[in-house]
Design a protein that fits this description.
The complex is a heterodimer.
Chain A lengths: L2 H17 L4 H7 L4 H18 L5 H17 L14 H23 L9 H14 L3 H24 L6 H16 L87 H4 L3 H26 L5 H20 L3
Chain B lengths: L1 H11 L3 H23 L2 H18 L10 H22 L6 H5 L5 H6 L4 H8 L4 H12 L4 H8 L3 H19 L6
Classes of the chains: A mainly alpha, B mainly alpha.
Chain lengths: 331, 180
């Protein structure tokens, strides 16, 4: 090794130490034979390192993050919905049903408690898709989507409690889709239809209504991994009339249109409840879910660590708007 | 490296979490790299934004060949800068270099030993293109010599030699009186 090569290596080692916060003096004492050559170069390097140690302006950081996030939302997720996409929808449904049946009740039950990122979560989503596919009426599908949105909120809260911010935004987006599917319900058509949906990952897309727009960004503290630069939410509990006193959420298995999601009116709950149409029952259920979920999310936000707050604020804002849209469908 | 490979593969499937992680890990470094190369923080903001939008557009075409993802990322930023400088050279602008370059003789600055990134950017223009690149990647991008070597398509030994000559040249421009 030539002396020049040796010096290059020593200089590089010292630079690396400076980058990592070491001192010039420590380097010089380590290589006293090169100290006179090293010192001026290390002083220039240190001044350059300090000069380069700049941070983007917070406003710029938020604006850029928002723009990136918006571009990200417009991108299709590859692969995730491709698992069954090569099959015709009807066949895909049959296979999906078979998988759910073969997986067995225990697996499906275990999956019901799973969270995004866990192995059984895909089973949970598949099960939901199969149930949607097997529900013939629009109203039944809407009721299921309402219950799935409820489940998404529960997942968001549980993930926040575990301190896992990664999947909160993804789950918020699923909740939004579930509620948009309710919002797109054709109220006048409760009749069975032959359409079949089987998306392993995606909840039914809103066919006619645009997704709830994410508001323009304002400054929020930088948090990992990807905070949502939304403004401080104005939590607006949907402005709708209070439910009749007789409305009671039913236990699973006795719900609306035979659904297992507790979306109906409990038997014997009173004349007023018995007189409600299926649509009114769904509306009342949605109203109760909206109030409870927004309250629970707000409570979670108040006790959440700072790094989780942007994601939770975003979830609250999306939930408030999406519930309002869904409730507006019923007039 | 395997973690990075897995992260990049997920990002190529448009996994928002993976893309967000790549963004957060590299955003500040890319911004600093661009500021040091062009010496204009406002322009650097727009360009940094554009770099990451370009990443979204082209990440599916990225081929994993054992090269760090950052090499590819800095190449996108580098191309963006080349485009910017090409367009800028076509426009007749008043050079801002003079006042900043004169700061090299400012006795107060020399005493404080403090310089601004814009001064370094101006001083770096007196360096060769390869020297500028190694200074930007090492000091603003905080890449290791091995990463710089891959990003620049050179051997590690060549990068170390370039780094040495770049600091010598930078010192000559920044501190003619030896104040630094």
């Amino acid at each position: 090794m030539t002396r020049m090569n040796e010096f290059d290596n020593i200089l590089d080692e010292c630079l690396q130490r400076l980058v990592e916060g070491g001192s010039i003096e420590a380097c010089l004492s380590r290589y006293p034979g090169y100290a006179s050559e090293l010192e001026p170069l290390l002083r220039t390097a240190q001044a350059t390192l300090k000069a380069a140690d700049i941070k983007p302006r917070p406003e710029f950081r938020d604006r850029a993050r928002y723009q990136f996030q918006s571009a990200l939302r417009e991108m299709p997720v590859k692969g995730k919905q491709g698992f069954f996409s090569f099959l015709k929808p009807g066949l895909a449904t049959v296979i999906g049903v078979a998988i759910v049946l073969l997986a067995g009740g225990a697996t499906v039950a275990a999956a019901g408690n799973s969270l995004p990122g866990e192995p059984l979560y895909q089973v949970k989503l598949t099960t939901e898709s199969v149930r949607l596919a097997l529900t013939p009426s629009d109203l039944g599908k809407a009721a299921l989507n309402a219950s799935f949105a409820d489940e998404r909120v529960d997942e968001i809260i549980r993930m926040a409690e575990k301190g896992e911010a990664d999947y909160i935004e993804e789950t918020t987006e699923r909740m939004n889709k579930n509620l948009l599917a309710v919002a797109n319900l054709n109220v006048s058509s409760g009749a069975a239809e032959g359409d079949v949906f089987f998306g392993v990952m995606n909840a039914p897309e809103a066919a006619t209504r645009a997704p709830v727009a994410t508001p323009a960004p304002t400054a929020t503290p930088a948090t990992a991994p990807f905070p949502s630069p939304t403004p401080s939410p104005q939590i607006t509990t949907p402005a709708v009339t209070p439910p009749p006193a007789a409305t009671v959420i039913t236990p699973p298995g006795q719900g609306l249109l035979g659904s297992k999601d507790g979306l109906g009116v409990e038997e014997g709950a009173g004349d007023a409840a018995e007189n409600l149409t299926d649509e009114q029952q769904l509306r009342e259920t949605l109203l109760q879910q909206a109030e409870k979920n927004l309250r629970d999310l707000q409570e979670q936000l108040e006790k959440a660590p700072e790094e989780l707050k942007p994601s939770l604020r975003h979830a609250i804002e999306v939930a408030a708007r999406a519930y309002q849209e869904a409730l507006a469908t019923f007039g | 490296m395997r973690d990075e490979e897995s992260l990049v593969r997920r990002a190529q499937q448009n996994d928002p979490v993976a893309l967000a992680q790549l963004y957060e890990e590299n955003f500040d470094r890319i911004y600093r790299y661009i500021v040091l190369k062009i010496g204009d923080r406002t322009e650097a903001e727009d360009m940094t934004q554009q770099v990451f939008l370009n990443v979204l557009k082209s990440i599916s075409s990225y081929k994993w060949k054992g090269m760090p993802f950052t090499s590819w990322l800095y190449r996108i930023a580098h191309n963006q800068i080349v485009d910017y400088l090409r367009k800028k050279s076509r426009r007749a602008t008043v050079p801002i270099d003079e006042s900043i370059a004169a700061a090299g003789d400012d006795p107060e600055r020399s005493v404080l030993g403090k310089i601004e990134i814009e001064e370094v950017a101006v001083a770096a223009k007196k360096l060769t293109a390869a020297q500028q690149e190694v200074i930007s990647l090492r000091f603003a991008g905080e890449l290791s010599v091995a990463e710089c070597a891959k990003a620049m398509g050179k051997s590690e030994g060549a990068v170390k030699a370039l780094q040495h000559s770049a600091i010598v040249a930078l010192r000559r421009v920044l501190a003619p009186g030896g104040g630094l």
